[in-house]
Amino acid sequence: MCFLQVEVLDAKTREQLCFLDKMKLNIKHLPRFFSPFSEGKLLRDDEILQNLPVGTTATMYFRDLGPQLGWTMVFLAEYIGPLLTYLLFYFRVPYIYSHRHAFTSSPHPVVTLACACHTFHYMKRLIETIFVHRFSHGTMPLRIIVRNCAYYWGFSAWLAYYINHPLYTPPSYGDLQVSYALIIFVVCELGNFSIHLTLNNLRGDGELGRRYPVPTKNPFTWLFFFVSCPNYTYEVGAWLSFSVMTQCLPVAFYTLLGFIQMTIWARGKHKAYSREFKDYPSLRMAIVPLIL
């Protein structure tokens, strides 16, 4: 049986934390509450020592990640907030608007429709978080969770305040504008859900069967012919249609910020696919077909 000596150092101070002598190569020795590094590269939790190119002596660096929260709980926290916050404004609970408007309802049908669409969107996200998504990273730092929740919760309150305001006026082109926007919204939501299901099935094979996503028989997945991250394309489309439906400036601003962030994520994923797979389709763009 071959044995291995492992020196464990603090990633910041380079202080020796421990020295492990005569370790069997076929035993897993990676604590989950630290982030292990070998030659500057992050090691996964499922790495096995015998598979690492370290010879008979290895030096590993550990970084304390601080308070963490699992990805499922992260997304639940991010999405439950906007769902409930919006409803507070829709039902006009006291002290949000003037006292005489407490628990009143808007006379405009588009306000109720917007609430239904917003509620459906975040209910879908919660269902996907619990039953569909498979997260590739174990945890997220608590400080980032607080920042993300502030972003989602804050913007939800901001746009809900204006859409449900007693002085809100419906879109300029009336029912026609609302109807077309609703159709696009529903299509994009269904498309986004279809892409998430496809990605979930793709990840079912694990690392050994790793491959890039391709269109299936589901027409909503045909956007894979043109972009690497159609889930983001559909997400932006849903918020664009919601902006048109409500004709509300805060919604449009929120959509713009979301598009910028999702473009960054999509371009990163697109580059990763292109590097990993030599036969990756050259026609695909990151998020906007033929453009970006």
Strand proportion: 5-15%
Strand order of the largest sheet: 2-1-5-3-4
What quaternary form is this?
A: single chain
Supply the number of structural domains. Answer: 2
The tally of helices reads 6
Overall morphology: globular
Structural class call reads: alpha+beta
Task: Provide structural commentary.
The protein has 292 residues and is α+β, with helices and mostly antiparallel strands. The protein folds into 2 domains: 67-165, no CATH class; 171-291, no CATH class. Helix content is 48%, strand content 13%. It has helices at residues 71-90, 109-131, 142-163, 174-202, 230-246, 249-276; strands at 3-10, 16-24, 34-38, 41-42, 57-64, 68-70, 139-141. The protein has a 5-stranded mixed β-sheet, with no helix packed on it. Strands 6-7 form a two-stranded antiparallel ribbon. β1 and β2 form a beta hairpin. α1 (71-90) packs antiparallel against α2, α1 (71-90) packs parallel to α3 (142-163) and α3 (142-163) packs antiparallel against α6. The termini are far apart. It comes from Seriola lalandi dorsalis. Keywords: Endoplasmic reticulum, Membrane, Oxidoreductase, Transmembrane, Transmembrane helix. This is Very-long-chain enoyl-CoA reductase-like. Residues 39-64 form the TECR-like N-terminal domain. GO terms for molecular function: oxidoreductase activity, acting on the CH-CH group of donors.
